[in-house]
Design goal:
The chain is an alpha/beta fold and 171 residues long. It has a single domain, classed as Dihydrofolate Reductase, subunit A, CATH 3.40.430.10. It has 4 helices and 12 strands. The strands form 2 sheets. Strands 1, 4, 5, 6, 7, 8, 10, 11 and 12 form a 9-stranded mixed sheet that branches. The chain has a 3-stranded antiparallel sheet with strand order 3-2-9, with no helix packed on it. Strand 11 and strand 12 form a beta hairpin.
Length: 171
C-alpha cells in the first residue's frame, strides 16, 4: 500500500492554530475529499476530536494511546496505538466505499503524526498556501527536497485573499 501524507501548509510550514485549520479554502477541501474518498485516512486523536465524527466514505483510523478498545469502533472508525498498527489496519480492513486502485492510505494530521510518518511515506500531497502565519502553533515537518522531488504542480488558485498550488512530491 502506498503511504501518503496530505496537508495544507503555508510557506513557513504552518498547519494550524488551537487545533483548527488556518484557513478554509473550498477548492482545497474538494481536493482533499476527491483524493481521500474510498481510501483509509490516519489521524491523531486531537485531529479526530477537532473533526468530531468519522469522515464518510473512508476508513478512519485514529492513532491514540487512549483508544476505547484498540482496533474496534464503528463500521468506518478504528483505533490504533502505533503507526505501524494503523498502516496494517489500512492495508487489511475492508470498508464501505473502499476503492481498489490505486491502493493508498493518507496520513492527515496532526503535526506530531506528520513528523512521525514522514520518513515512512511515499508521496506528499501538499496544498502550498503562499502566506506565512506567525500565530500558528502547529507545523508540518521540514522535508528534504532531494529525497522528495516534485512530481506535479497545479495552476495557481486564488481564494479568500490567498493564493495556493496543489503539489505532489514523491520518492
Amino acid at each position: 500500500m502506498e503511504k501518503c501524507l496530505i496537508a495544507a501548509i503555508s510557506d513557513d510550514y504552518a498547519l494550524g492554530k488551537d487545533n483548527d485549520l488556518l484557513w478554509h479554502l473550498s477548492e482545497d477541501l474538494k481536493y482533499f475529499k476527491r483524493l481521500t474518498s474510498g481510501h483509509p485516512v490516519i489521524m491523531g486523536r486531537k485531529t479526530y476530536e477537532s473533526i468530531g465524527r468519522p469522515l464518510p466514505k473512508r476508513l478512519n483510523i485514529v492513532l491514540t494511546r487512549k483508544a476505547p478498545a484498540m482496533g474496534s469502533g464503528s463500521a468506518n472508525l478504528l483505533y490504533a496505538s502505533t503507526l505501524e498498527e494503523a498502516f496494517a489496519l489500512a492495508a487489511s480492513t475492508p470498508f464501505e466505499g473502499r476503492v481498489d486502485e490505486p491502493d493508498q492510505c493518507f496520513v492527515m494530521g496532526g503535526g506530531s503524526l506528520y513528523k512521525q510518518a514522514l520518513p515512512l511515506c511515499d508521496k506528499l500531497y501538499l496544498t502550498e498556501v503562499h502566506t506565512t502565519r506567525p500565530d500558528a502553533d502547529t507545523f508540518f515537518p521540514a522535508f528534504d527536497k532531494k529525497i522528495y522531488r516534485e512530481f506535479s504542480r497545479s495552476e495557481l488558485y486564488s481564494e479568500n485573499n490567498l493564493t495556493y498550488h496543489f503539489v505532489i512530491y514523491g520518492r
